[in-house]
Amino acid sequence: MPRFMLWAALAASAAVAGCGTLTQSSNQTLLVQAVLDYKPVDGVGCVLSNAAGRWFVLTPAKVTVKKAAGPLRVDCRKDGAASDEMVGARQDRTLWGNYVFTAGLGNKLDRETGRGFEYPATVTVVLRHDAPDPRYAPPEGRIVY
């Protein structure tokens, strides 16, 4: 193989490796689990949301979400216990390739599509005991059966 072709092939593969938009999926599968008082809890309803959408899951379960550059909000509730957490997205291995091979253009594309970012593979939600939601409490002096 001539030297020129070898260098061209290396440059092309390096450029592609630098951009998550070309090499990464826009979806990610996460395992969501819940813990209350240091014990796992099944059947907790969780709503996961980010700039790309919303998903509902009952723990423990796997859910496929659309990746985004911003955080993933995880709001879970069951029987007076609740949690509302933010899970940060981190840039994956394409970060330096984006700057070296695409002069930052790849990073801009990855931020817009979310493809160059990822969330932790396992999201463990720590529930805490909450007071009942006042929106659902009966009016004072009225008995509800």
Summary keywords:
about 140 residues, alpha+beta, 5-stranded antiparallel beta sheet, 4 helices, about 25% helix, elongated
| First-last Cα distance | 83 Å
Q: Calculate Rg over CA atoms.
A: 22 Å
Taking the sheet with the most strands, its summary is: 5 strands, antiparallel
- How much helix, percentage-wise, in residues? 10-25%
Mean pLDDT across all amino acids: 75
Number of helices: 4
How much strand? 35-45%
What ranges have pLDDT less than 50 throughout 5 or more consecutive residues? 14-21
Secondary-structure class: alpha+beta
Number of strands: 11
Overall geometric form: elongated
Task: Name the strands of the widest sheet in spatial order.
Answer: 4-3-6-7-11
Order of helices and strands: HHEEEEEEEEHHEEE
What features would you describe in this structure?
- Helix content is 25%, strand content 39%.
- It has 145 residues and is α+β, with helices and mostly antiparallel strands.
- It has a five-stranded antiparallel sheet with strand order 4-3-6-7-11, with no helix packed on it. Strands 1, 2, 5 and 10 form a four-stranded mixed sheet that branches.
- Strand 1 (27-36) and strand 2 (39-41) form a beta hairpin.
- It is elongated, with a radius of gyration of 22 Å.
